[in-house]
Design brief:
Length: about 140
Amino acid sequence: MDKLKLFSRWAVMMPAAILIAWLTFIISQAVGSFILSMIGVDSTSFLFLAYKHSMPHILMGGVFVASVIKLAPSHKNIAAYVCSFLAILLGLIPLVLAVIFADNSALNFWGIAGMVFELTGVVLMAYAVRSSSYDLREG
């Protein structure tokens, strides 16, 4: 029974981390959009678009790695590094393909900025796991 529990935690870790990251993204988008619209920022302004394509993406990348650390049953550092590597790889491949194969009129520059910020969040959290004096793996 103990091996089954351990296997199920490993099997659920990635889908749960992805779900937690997406929920964080959706909530931060909604809250940020609400706050910016309440203070009178237009939804087509540069400030609104810069927030929409930076902060939620950074949070999503960081929360993905943090949730992997919390959900992994053992070898939390290695799991965080492997998931960070996979997130970077899965983020860079479409980013590079979009830049290489799309013409300038079809490029979604805000989408590219969002992906860069998401990768920044993953890298920052992986660095925090590696070098933090506060152990993120504890309780």
